[in-house]
User: What shape does this take?
Amino acid sequence: MNASTSTPIGALTGIKVLDLSRVLAGPWATQMLADLGADVIKVERPVAGDDTRHWGPPFLKDEAGNDTREASYFTACNRNKRSITVDMAHPEGQALLRQMAQEADVVVENFKVGGLAHYGLDYESLKALNPRLIYCSITGFGQDGPYAERAGYDLMVQAMCGLMSITGQADGEPGGGPLKVGVAVIDVFTGLYASNAILAALNARHHSGQGQYIDMALLDVGMAVLANQAAGFLATDKPPQRAGNIHPSLAPYQDFPTRGGNVLLAIGNDGQFARFCAAIGQEDWAQDARFATNTARVHHRAELLERMQPVMLTRSTPEWIALLEDKAVPCGPINTVAQAFDDPQVKARGIQLQLQRSAADGIHQVATVASPMRLSATPVTYRSAPPTLGQHTDEILREFGLGTDAIAQLHHQGVV
Assistant: This one.
């Protein structure tokens, strides 16, 4: 579907965000703010731009179907933003950014600890110019502690926080061993936590009139999103183990081979299990003391699976879904990404969007995934496709009072 051209007032209309971040965690946070209506000015390096503009293949294709030089990675987290190129190593570039920060509500950056102090763009420097400023720093390990100076990347943190130790098949099983998640989930979660913290700080500013500093660390987030696995360790002092697709606290809650495929069963309570048993003509399983409660099923998982696995092979995946879905027994296919986008429910929800873009670079439309935030009164808007590098440089400079000659001089000096 095509994104709507209407632009109703967003929940964050009037909020200005100076986005000094790159790659994924910071841009994910600022895209969320942009989707909600904030004016996000993405500051990029002249010529090179955000690192992810070059992280390909895959690359965007032009109208003739040929690869361009723009990686699709960049488009995942930069829609609804305006791009300006500024060389912050140049004194005049630093002055420009300080001027922009004076009028901003939020700054987001993911430089190494202390990295922006050299340019007078750290929190203390900008706070002196704009006490209402909310300044969010995103680093691998936070602003203090023995690892503060280290660079941090999603894969490194997935390993360090224990996530890889609980992801993948168990040792001794085919393909066993630690495994990363197929998406940079620590970066994405950090972006989500950062945007929440920024929204909280904006609300606090309504009462205090003052901005504040936000210290976001990928490692902190990685530990936090261990969720029930961390809670289980803290309760028992026993590290959780890899178990493939089996849930450590629920049964049956996993994938099963079917006749010609696989199906996922996500039975989360005793009522669902009883309905499953009735559907397959095995009502006695739900009365068996070994299987009557979830706790019992977890303790007797091997015996339960010994009974279930032959039964699950008697039907195809579509047949299992047809049998169970109207009985409120959660089940579903294990889709590829292509199959997921072709799913009727995904289509009905309008998850895939096409955003219009200037054809100057040979790309007329950019596909994107719709925001899952659905607000009734102040809905997410899709105002613009991810920008080309420096697309809005002159426009933004004019907004900050620079005339044609001054802008031309900045271009000549290589500042922008």
